[in-house]
Design a protein that fits this description.
Helices cover 9% and strands 30% of the residues. It has 256 residues and is mainly β. It has a single domain, classed as Carbonic Anhydrase II (Roll). Strands 1, 2, 3, 4, 5, 6, 7, 8, 9, 10, 11, 12 and 13 form a 13-stranded mixed sheet that branches. The chain is globular. The relative contact order is 0.26.
């Protein structure tokens, strides 16, 4: 089952407007409006009420995201990222985010276990913070591993130079629920920062059911996207970030 707890299947829509055609400076429609599936990021179905859908969201002790400020320098080995250009890619607007589902895009090796890269999706603002600071966006690369565990690599996105790979995703992404093929070949390596320093900790999904099955790696160095690229996503999804959760007795390790 391909990350069923994260990805919600949607009917394919043809000839629909794309997220890139929305006016990021006002007007247009919101791709995330009226999101289905019983939860959202605001109001009566927002994060404060997710515990009504899954007890882990309210009572879990290893919830994500977290603030990464209290990290501890460690000699732990960084994950061995073995991404490659995907054999195929589908862009999905599931009402909560834009997701790119991938086939044969490589994976990551963590402590001897291999996890296959299944999808990447985006959040505005970033879900993880550093000393309370949120970045404009965060990309989550979700990998499937043995025994139902997941490995997620988070990449912060800050305002700066235009990111060519994002253009192709925004151009293909439907503005309402649906999916479409990504015409250009998708290479996840375009989203890796040059520096490999990272934060690592054990946590959970950041959406219901908030299952505590995730080995998290968040890259310490952000990549860049243009102000317009960030604005396009933010206009479609004004706020799709879960608030930070208590770190509890966990440690956040910082790899060199």
């Amino acid at each position: 089952m391909r990350v069923a707890v994260i990805a919600i299947a949607a009917l394919t829509l043809t000839g629909c407007a794309r997220i890139s055609s929305l006016n990021p400076w006002g007007g247009g429609e919101h791709g995330g409006a009226g999101a289905p599936h019983g939860w959202s990021y605001e109001g009566a179905t927002g994060p404060a009420h997710w515990g009504e859908l899954s007890s882990a969201c309210a009572a879990g002790r290893e919830q994500s995201p977290v603030d990464l400020a209290s990290s501890v320098a460690a000699a732990a080995r960084a994950p061995d990222i073995r991404w490659q250009a995907a054999h195929s890619a589908e862009v999905l607007n599931n009402g909560h985010t834009i997701q790119v589902s991938l086939e044969r895009a490589g994976g990551v090796v963590i402590e001897g276990e291999t996890y296959e890269l299944a999808q990447v999706h985006f959040h505005h603002l970033s879900e993880h913070t550093v000393d309370g600071r949120a970045f404009p966006m965060e990309a989550h690369f979700v990998h499937e591993g043995p025994d139902g565990r997941l490995a997620v690599i988070g990449v912060f996105i800050e305002d700066g130079e235009r990111h060519a790979a994002l253009d192709a995703i925004w151009e293909a992404a439907p503005s309402t629920f649906g999916e479409a093929a990504l015409e250009e070949r998708f290479d996840p390596r375009a989203f890796l920062p040059e520096r490999t320093a990272s934060y690592r900790y054990r946590g959970s999904l950041t959406t219901p059911p908030c299952s505590e099955v995730v080995d998290w790696t968040v890259m310490a160095t952000p990549i860049q996207a243009s102000a317009q690229q960030i604005a396009i996503f933010a206009h479609a999804f004004p706020g799709n970030a879960r608030p930070v959760q208590p770190i509890g007795r966990r440690f956040v390790l910082r790899t060199p």
